[in-house]
Amino acid sequence: MTSPSTTISLVDTDPAELAVDAIVIGLHSQTGEPDVAGPAGALLLASGAESIAAAFDGKLTETLALLGATGAPGEVIKLATLGTVTAPIVAAVGLGAEPTGAAPAPETLRRAAGSVVRALAGARRVALTLPLPDDADAPAALRAVAEGALLGSYRFAGYKTRPQPARREPVAEVLIAVPEAGDAAARAEVDRAQAVTGAVRLSRDWVNTAPNMLRPPAFADVVAEAARAAGLGVEVLDEEALAAGGYGGIIAVGQGSEAPPRLVKLTYTPEGGGTGKRVALVGKGITFDTGGISIKPAQGMWEMKSDMGGAAAVGAAMLAIAALKPAVAVTGYLPMAENMPSGTSYRPGDVITMYNGKKVEVLNTDAEGRMVLGDALARACEDGADYLFETSTLTGGQVISLGKRIAGVMGSPELCERVRVAGDAVGEPAWPMPLPDDVRKGMDSDVADISQVNAGMDRAGHMLQGGVFLREFVTDEVAWAHIDIAGPSYHSGEPTGYWTKGGTGVPVRTLIHLVEDVATNG
């Protein structure tokens, strides 16, 4: 299924005269003591709204206040213009308190653009006149607005067979008001935003697809087809190649399903060889996770279609990388399996020989992600990499520790910090976590090199156990980071900011940022 797309372009004409279905302005809240600017709690129009305010004879903020506007971040208030400007609707989106001596933070703009474009579903053409600085921060602000608008307009196509009269179509065209629409740097930011958000939207589509329609062979086929079209190198290992190659972890997890496992390898080679650095991206691709023999409770199990969010993110990020062409070699590894209970499933008590030769004692078949990832990590290191970033919906412990918005990061300390900085830059926060020796000791096995989980089934430090296990499959010379996205990759609540319900596309933008950072800074 492919979600409806939204186009985006730049304009530099007077916003009050734009022939659009709605014009969007920013609105700040004001707090503190009354002063000459107005009473405490008054509203303040953000820059970019000057001509709109003039058309309303200075009564725009007063009217918005009467409609309940507060300027709170993400709040959207619509007002009929009654001919005061060309657009029939003015939509004011809250930006929070006015920052002192600066434009709103990029993430504030990104979320605001997403909120207002989603709220304007049903309008065909919308113009955004949000505040954009005219200094060195301008590119980041424009990028944020463009990304927010394109992601906020996302809606999964779904499978409904009957017309939905009350369902409004997403905004088809977004115009962003800028000082100079022909500016090459501004146009480059929009082009980049379209490439990046296109990847995020595709990742969301894959995560939201019904699990019976995206089992491992089908998932591998759709990723491979998109990758070939993008000019990437593609290698797909089927169940026979995996067994012959010694990928014990992937085979073990996948053997309980009639839909056999796959390992997809995607390769981007920069022109001229680039900087000589090599980046590996690895993503967990469990297309559905019942827990296997250690079966999960029925409540909420339907969301386990999202257990391939890591592979979806890596596959989509590779497509964006092919379009952006950074000067660094990048290889993506997507191990795919369906974890099902059957007479052929792997069992608690099994000992599995992994791709790097290590023996793993299985204690919980619901700890399947680390099994497929262990093989993929070992293969990535064997192929050669200077930096290895792996992402997965690995543990419920991530949600307990950091909530549903912040990913947990484990691995080489310097690279974990680099992931944190990248996450802050793109609005996908991540927080470094330790890999304590006592957690590793708790995973000692009496019969194998390591247990999948704590040998006593103690769930203390559950997220850290996942990281400790994965470390066993990364060679010493490779800097690596494991990004646990169990919470951030899937949003089951009401839409917020540029997140719609379902797959979020986290951490596609983080991975792209990291690759570009390596290309620029080594």
Structure description:
With 522 residues, the protein is of the alpha/beta class. It has 15 helices and 21 strands. Helix 4 packs parallel to helix 5 and helix 8 (248-254) packs antiparallel against helix 10 (369-383). The chain starts with 6 loop residues before the first strand and ends with a helix. The relative contact order is 0.11. The model is unreliable at 34-40 (pLDDT under 50). The active site is at 296, 370. Its cofactor is Mn(2+).
Spans where pLDDT lies below 50 across 5 or more residues: 34-40
- Main β sheet profile: 9 strands, mixed
Q: Alpha-carbon distance between the termini?
A: 38 Å
Mean pLDDT: 95
Indicate the structural class.
alpha/beta
Helix content: 25-40%
The count of β-strands is 21
